[in-house]
Design a protein that fits this description.
2 domains; 41% helix
Length: 259
Amino acid sequence: MQCPHCSAPIAPAARFCPNCGALLVAPATPGSAAASAGPGPTTVQSPQTLASRAFATPPSRRRRRGRRWLLGCLGSLLLLLLLLLGAWFLLIRPTLNRLAKEQLNAALDSAVQQIDPARAAQLPGGPVRINETVLNNLLTLAHAPASPVQDAHFAVTPTAITLDFTLYGTANSISAVPEASAGQLRISDLHTQGPIGWILSDEDLASLVNQHLATAQQRLQHPVLAVVLENHAVDLLLGPPSSANGRSASRPLGGDSGG
């Protein structure tokens, strides 16, 4: 008897070919329908066929594996998102918040230092107009060329004062309403637009600006009784100076009397 697969001689009762290892179908038992029909050809299955049958996966199992893979990917993405959010709120945002406050403190300190106490003391009580040009000149003097804040510009309207600027190349704006409260100049209704709002909250900015306004008013040496906004100008009503050596006529702060 020979192996149908490789023609090697095999024993009649052998189930595997000793040469190629092919499986030989065992002969049918006596009394079966196949035995009564007489001996038939021996069916041989190649190793490749056996391997393909052994590793064949039912469609339902393939679908379950596909769903598990998809759920695993979604779970990994959700975990990555949670890690990024945690890093933003616990590490990245606090660091950027601190750096932004340092930059703003430096810029506002420099702007406040531009107010000359000796000259401010000569201002009498009464109305004083601060033009938009004066505000932008103070901003220019306080600006550091290496600062990430660029193209800063004040705009004054009857409803608010707006500061437009770019931060690392992105457009931002801060708007607020100045007001007089118990002789102190303060800002309220502060709102931010742009990426600066991701780093500094409106409350952070309002607190920071009001601290420097208090310092500026100490150098101004006058209480502020009222604030009126107009197009391109802010009108302040100043109380009597702390040192009574001013004259009765009002004088524009910064030497600019234009509207």
